Amino acid sequence: MSENYRTTRRVYLKGATAAGVAGLTGLSTSAGAAQGGAIQMGSILPITGNLSAYGSGMQKAVNVAVQDVNDAGGPLDRQINMTNTDSQTQPSRAIQQYNSLVNEQNIIGFVGAASSGVSVPLAQNVAADQVMQMSNASTSPALSEIGYNEDRSLKYFGRTAPNDAQQGIVMGRIMNDDQYIGADRAAFLFVDNPYGQGLAEKARAQFQGETVGMVGYSQRASDYTSTLDTLFQNDPDAIGFIGYPGNGRTILNQWSNGGYGGEWVLSEGLNSSDFLSSLSNITSGMYLASPNPEQTPGQTAFEEKMGEQSGTLFAPHAYDGLFLQALAIQAAGEASGTAIAGNIRSVSRPEEGASQQTATTAADGGGGGGGQQANVVTVGEFQKAKDLLSNGEDINYQGASSPVNLNESLEPLNQFAILQVQDDGSTESLETIPRSFFRGRLDGGGGSTTTTTQG
């Protein structure tokens, strides 16, 4: 997908190259600190709109990360100044907020947006502006290919949420496997945006039976009877539902009242405890495909810091999105979007060549290579990271959400779980699918079909 490269607002960074960013890594902390002043960063999250059930928890997580970083003196001994904004879960509003953050606040990086439909238009601009975007909840496969500069030497869009190519594999498995649904015919109902379209295509590609419907729906509608009639006109055994709680409540109530039948597989966007419990008489027995990353050393600390909002979907990912950017600034010795883009992968993963087993053992607090174990940093350990980096050591951030080992597309590979909704609206894990299962099964960001649906 082509990008609209505009004249950068970051004129003092114009002409930066991959080689230039590599050079930034060697700058001393004192040289970076000499720049002085607060480091301007932001968030664009859904405080209102269809994802408002998650927005306040996500924003709190970002602010907790800022506090943890600033309590350690901040990157390069400079404080982060955070400006939080509301996307309203609308692309047009998010673009307005982004432009304000860039033009008025002079941010170098931000966390957000949540939905892929909001993140895609933002990500098309960040490379030209040399602003780093880290999304905590946008999962569209198309985002693997958006955010690069013109020569593709740097990617200014990254995410701590997994690529939906993984989730599509899991949704297809639930529909295919006789242990779960074992469907012969399936239809897919999806919110008509890049998240819904992209994931529906991925799940359809994984389903081994006959696909008898691909039905998009508008978030602006209030009645979905005709949508459901279309969805069930060819009598599917299973329904893959990709959506959000706001419209999902209306859709499932109308499905139940209409007596349509079929077994449902819900996307992670519907994995809200309030949503599932408020509809427990309807959702009981339904399946969910959900990221279920391995435990890391800092997850308990994160939950304690978040209190009653610790269970907010993708809030841990929001914490990691800010913390990783701060680590990248420290590693680079330079506070700029280009420095973040060039260094964020290096602080997120084991040293190249280190075995995944060694990294996992270190994260679990067990034995293993002494050097690798010493270089693991986690939630709230920004001072430890600063000390290691100042001594020329590499670090491996193990996050609040997962080990967040970012790949070349600046996105993690996650462990997943197959969940089933219980009578009270809670969920029970039926199967854990390890990261190793997905290696070699992803297509690196989506084929031509997915790219078309995201355009």
UniProtKB/TrEMBL annotation:
Keyword field contains Glycoprotein: no
Residues annotated as transmembrane: none
Compositionally skewed regions (Low complexity) per UniProt: 353-363
Region (Disordered): 348-374
Top-rank taxon, per record: Archaea
Keywords: Signal
Domain Leucine-binding protein per the UniProt entry, residue ranges: 39-366
InterPro entries: BCAA_transport, Leu-bd, Peripla_BP_I, TAT_signal
Protein name: ABC transporter substrate-binding protein
Organism: Halorussus aquaticus
Organism lineage: Archaea, Methanobacteriati, Methanobacteriota, Stenosarchaea group, Halobacteria
